[in-house]
Amino acid sequence: MTVQGLPMVVPAEELPARVRIYEVGARDGLQNEKATVPTETKAEFIHRLADAGLTTIEATSFVHPKWVPQLADAEELFPRVSELPVALPVLVPNERGLDRALALGADRIAVFASATESFAKANLNRTLDEALAMFEPVVERAKAQNAHVRGYLSMCFGDPWEGPVPVPQVVRVCRALMDMGCDELSLGDTIGVATPGHVQALLLALNEAGVPTHNLGVHFHDTYGQALANTLAALQHGVTTVDASAGGLGGCPFAKSATGNLATEDLVWMLRGLGIDTGVDLDRLIATSVWMADRLGRPSPSRTVRALSHKEQ
Ligand code: HMG
Ligand code: MG
C-alpha cells in the first residue's frame, strides 16, 4: 500500500517543533471491544505499532479481570512485548495492580482518577477522594522503584451523569495528582464534549494553579468530531504530548457515551501538514489499522485510514 496525497507542509506560527504521540489503541481501544482480542493478535498489534515508529505505546491494564475481561491477559501479553525498544506504560488502579505490573518489570505506570464523583464510582467503585487515597501508596511505591508515573484524569470537560464539569473541580484533582508525585497528567475528555476554548481555559487554569504545560498531555475522544480541533488548541497552548489510538479504536466500558479516541492517523496527517515531527511512518500505521480492522470485523472510523487505504472498508 502506498500513501498518496500527503498534505502540503505549511507550518503555523508558535506551535511545538515536535509532538510525542502517546498511543493508547492497545489499551483504551481494545478494552472496549465486545469480543476479547486474542493475546497473540494484541502482541502483533503492539509490535506493528512500534514498527510504525510510535515510541510510547500503552500496552494493557493491570485492573481487576472481572471489571475489564478484555485485558485479563495482561500477564500473558506484557512479556511478549516488553523487549521492544519503546516505552510501554500500563494502567494500574491500586497496589494489587502495581504488584502485578512490577513483577513483570513494567517501568511506566498510569493511575486513573476522575474529576467527578459519578465516574469515580462507576470506574473505580470509590468516591473521588477514596480513589485518590487508593493511588497514593501506588504512586509512592512506583516512584521509589524509579518508575515513571502518569496520572490520568477522566471527565475533565463533561460527565454523562453530571453534565458540564466546572474547571476549578478539575484543577483540584489535577493538583492532588501532581502533589502525590505524578510525573505527568493526561487530561481526559472521556465523552468527547470539549471544544477548543474550553481546552485552553482548562490549560490556563492549570498553569495558574502551578501545573506547568510541560507536565500536561491531552486525551481526546472524538464523539462530537472535536478531537483534532481540541488538539490544535492544546498545541497552541504549548502542549507536546497527545494521546491517540491507531485507527480511532476506543471508548470506555464504564461511560456509555465514550466512543473512539482521536485516531492516530488523523493526528499524524494534521501534524505532518503543520511540519511537526512525530517520527511515525503513516503508511505502516495505516496498514496496521487496516489489519486490525480486519481482525475486529469492522472498518476503522479514522477518516485518514479510510481516505488512504486502497482496500474497500
Ligand atoms: P473493587 O471491586 O472495589 O475491588 O474494584 P476491591 O478493592 O474491593 O478488591 C476485590 C477483589 O479484587 C480482591 O480479591 C482484590 O485482590 C481483587 P479478594 O481478596 O476478594 O479475592 N483485586 C484485583 N485483582 C487483580 N488486579 C487488581 C485488583 N484489584 C483488586 N488490580 C478496582 C476496584 C479499582 C480494582 C476496579 O474498580 C477496577 O479494576 N477498575 C478498573 C476500571 C477500568 O479499567 N476502567 C477503564 C480504564 S479508565 C479509562 O478508560 C479512561 C481513560 O482512557 C481516560 C479517559 O478517556 O478519560 C484512562
Ligand atoms: Mg480514554
From TrEMBL:
Residues 19-286 form the Pyruvate carboxyltransferase domain. One of its GO terms (biological process) is ketone body biosynthetic process. Pfam families: HMGL-like (PF00682). GO terms for molecular function: hydroxymethylglutaryl-CoA lyase activity; metal ion binding. It comes from the Bacteria. Keywords: Lyase, Metal-binding. Belongs to the HMG-CoA lyase family. This is Hydroxymethylglutaryl-CoA lyase. It comes from Streptomyces scabichelini.
